[in-house]
Amino acid sequence: MQQPAHSPRDVTLTRYRASVFDLDGVVTDTARVHCQAWRKLFDGYLAERAERDGVPLWAFDPQGDYRRHVDGKPRNEGIRSFLESRSIQLPFGSPEDAPDEETICGLANRKQRFFEQFLATEGVDVFASSVAFIESIRKAGLKTALISSSKNAQDILVRTGLAHLFDAVIDGIEAERTGLHGKPHPDIFRHAASLLSVPPGEAFAVEDALSGVEAAYKADFGLVIGIDRARQRDELLAHGADVVVDDLAELMPADVVQENSLPDALEAFDQLVGAMGPERPAVFLDYDGTLTPIVDRPELAVLDAPVRRTLERLAKCCTVAIVSGRDRVNVAGLVGIDNLVYAGSHGFDIAGPDGLQMQHERAAEFLPALDAAEEQLRARLVDVPGVLIERKRFAIATHYRLVAESDVERVEAAVETVAGEHPQLRRTGGKKVFELRPQLPWDKGKAVVWLLEALGLAKEKVVPIYIGDDETDEDAFAALRERGGLGLFVGDASQATAASYRLEDTDAVGHFLSRLADMLEDRP
Ligand SMILES: O=P(O)(O)OC[C@H]1O[C@H](O[C@H]2O[C@H](CO)[C@@H](O)[C@H](O)[C@H]2O)[C@H](O)[C@@H](O)[C@@H]1O
Fold this sequence. Notes:
This protein is an alpha/beta fold. 41% of the residues lie in helices and 16% in strands.
């Protein structure tokens, strides 16, 4: 396989004419739903065999087995590959086989049943940064196609409302109908390029699965981008990725960024307020990196008194909510104003004036896993200088800001191992922090939408404004975009964002809020 050719900075995406995106794990977070369904299928089936035949049970490993045998492959191919690893051979059967039949097709139908059950309870999460990236690529004039080995891909596109982002879609059903070989064969990528009418060399491909990266490489794509969602950077490179990133935001091409550079919310204040018209705003604010600068330790992020006074003034004119990854009680203490709404633990835990109270209905189920994970993290990382473990009610942050560069990999590996032992928890990122939180389709965006409904603001003529600086805030920007709200990104905006305006830093946030309060106080 080829050697790694690029660092994200060297990549010029706009020299390509088209791009092809995998779905699960690239655009939507459905790879984890598939993984849960595979685990339930194989562990159930292997347990049946162990009991019936008295053979030892060698359980499905959601990391290694998932990546090696099933990720990215057509369903039947994944089953065959996994069973082969356990020296099990089954007849192929026929696609109509009932889910309890002991054939490849029977097991495939059983997996599909589990997948649908998990999907119904957990919903579909979209990677907001991937959506923003695809939108930017399209604005820059590139054609886009979606490919997936999954027969559920069209259903997922409809559920998420993302179909408009693609000029062509090839899913598992279409691939089977047209006789395309599954990944790692290059067929599906070659077919996508031909549907977009470009030679593969003039297109780039984006994949997270080893089999998918290999397929795009074999299809001779001009550039193969691997997204590392499973700590397999070296393997992605070995399978043919030219460049590996943790998130597509890292690859925003300079010329697209230029073209998209967001208006500064202070410079464009009159235009922004004009767009609001006579309607009142509802102001949603992230805390760290938005209201206070990022500092070395969480407890040092203290709110400046002038900003507190501005928030008090603003709260007399409109709803003000703090939406934070911190523990709700902790962030409420730091802000120190009674009549605000506070959403903590990334929106899982909400309270506010007039008895407003909401804990995600299923969050408490995850407390035992969070408690155990916290204990394991503390034990594993006790001797790493600088690590800070911050427990929130419904999340655990492992901070590495003060950890020596040479130890960071060890910290990440520990978080990964602990996450692997608790599939009920999901790992997310942030600024020099690894987080574990409940594996539920809930985030800041969903919390903001919930608040708009709960506070009766969705019905009223209110323009929601969300200000944030971090990847977890992208969910809120994306949610408000769909509802005519405004997202303001804090930072240099050199990355993909679903926000519509930017503010340079926390000082600029303070000025913006103060001007907004002046304006609202002057209104009759
Ligand atoms: O959603 P937020 O309110 O922005 O909270 C996100 C995380 O912020 C805190 O960590 C970050 O800020 C710290 C203080 O500046 C900094 O030391 C750390 O490196 C940052 O990641 C907070 O401690 C976390 O719990 C929040 O999830």
